[in-house]
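Re: weekly structure request thread

Next one in the queue (181 aa):
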Amino acid sequence: MSIYKRIVLFSVVISICFAINLFAGSKEQLRDMSKQQNKKLVIDPRRVQQVSVQSVEQNLRADLAVESAWVRGNVTDRMAGFPLGVRVVNRGNAPVASAYIIRASLPGFPAREFNANHIPANPIRPGQSFAYEFYFFLGETDRLPPGQYDIAVMIDSSDVISELNENNNQGVALFAVQSAV
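Done, posted below.
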């Protein structure tokens, strides 16, 4: 075997060992996994890099969650709407780099959708949060009678973003409507 072929073979073996240690853990863990599954561990050097990159990419995902929701100010029975706020936090391990929809629902009224389209220019990084405020318009003649209300807020309601947890995208804002008299 020529020196060139030996060097190439040595480089391939080193690369495989590095990939195994980096992405799959120690050799002992691999042997234990292989024994547990009663299968012989076979490593195809042509697939090591491809499989490793795919597994890392699958684990890197954003996770948007509603941290809080609120109605700002005093709402009266003469108002045609009210300011609605929501604080969104990224609990994932990858930034949110695409726009998404925030949906607000008040029983008895059509849901309203707001576009969080600033995201491509200002991604929400892991651990970061961002507050949005919108005006929830009831309608030209619609008003809420005095009482207690809750409004549901859902982020990424159209499932544009693949998240680690799709079950933490909702929150509720409780508020009171007072008589303006």
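DSSP finds three helices and eight strands in the chain. Residues 22-26, 51-56 have pLDDT under 50 and may be disordered.
Next request, please.
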